[in-house]
Amino acid sequence: MSAPDDVTLPGSRIGIRDLPKISLHDHLDGGLRPQTIIELAEPLGIELPAATAPELAAWFAEKSDSGSLVEYLKTFDLTIAVMQTAEGLTRVAREFVEDLADDGVIYGELRWAPEQHLSRGLTLDETVEAVQRGIDEATDSVRAAGGWVRAGQLVSAMRHLDRGTEIAQLALRHRDRGVVGFDIAGPEAGFPASRLSEAFDLLARACFPATVHAGEADGVESIREALVDGHALRLGHGVRIAEDITIERADDESTFVSLGRVAQWVKDRGIALETSPSSNLQTGAIAAWGDTLADHPFDLLYQLGFRVTVNTDNRLMSATSLTRELALLAETFGYGMDDLEAFQLNAAEVAFLPLEDREELVDRIRDGFGRA
């Protein structure tokens, strides 16, 4: 699977990189610059598997392309290790948002798990504050240079650990200071959203939005629990909702599609699917349908009217950007500018922001695509 870093679609005057984009599913610990890892690791005494930034980038790409979510997640041991100080967290967050802006992203949600960043003495609140400093520094510098970007934190609890309620309370403490939503991450199979039902109930009573990783490493029942027990307004990946879709072909070659109860619920209520095409291939999330992007159920879901969005998941591990993901989809499924605009509008409409701010994003997207 290959695509240029940027393409200009037929009938357009500008490349995909210059179009306004929304990034909803992008992990902070999956988007570090390789050179930054090297520079942060040295004073902490962390041994690296490669000495130069290009070699380290290649190492991440190789280790991440295993077809297993469990193996994929192991690469995060290294990135998380260099994100254990306030200075490190601030720098990573600042560069993360700067890289989003360089890719044409106008709004990004940075998801990460504060409980994984306490080994060198930081408190949970201090980690959130350090990340917010980086976000603020980046947005200020981008705007000072004539650009425009906005970003918010999605605080994640690790679904296989037992700090869900504590992390939900952390998110609520910072809801007016940069945290826009809640998530659960980590191994999906065997660790359903119901394990953290107390945390989700707390958030629902406080009218605070949640997205849940579901339908990536587990199937339809995991999605059902994300919706019922997790009160999820969006589904992290969610691609295995396609397991609840039946396609039948009659003798006259007519095609009939029927949706199961969960799929129908997700479609009818416009619950967004935070798909990440390259990552979904790497982790085996679409293994039931094949092992190439053409096998990804993205186009099926799009054609059936599901609210699909396009994301990167982990830019370092997948050696990708949002521009590249969109270029790959356009190349594979023959999408044009109207399709790419639809994906961005989908994302803007479900961003964890007040309605007026989402309407501003919609206006910026329409203006940007209108100039293309």
UniProtKB/TrEMBL annotation:
Q: What is its EC class?
A: hydrolase
- Which cofactor is essential here? Zn(2+)
InterPro entries tied to this protein: A_deaminase_dom, Ado/ade_deaminase, Metal_Hydrolase
Q: EC number(s) of the enzyme?
A: 3.5.4.4
For the keyword Hydrolase, the answer is yes
Residue ranges occupied by any Adenosine deaminase domain in the UniProt entry: 20-366
Q: Does the keyword Metal-binding apply?
A: yes
Pfam families referenced in this protein's UniProt entry, alphabetically? A_deaminase
GO MF annotation: an example: hydrolase activity
**Keywords attached to this entry:** Hydrolase, Metal-binding, Zinc
The entry sums up its family as follows:
Belongs to the metallo-dependent hydrolases superfamily. Adenosine and AMP deaminases family.
Q: What protein name does the entry list? A: adenosine deaminase
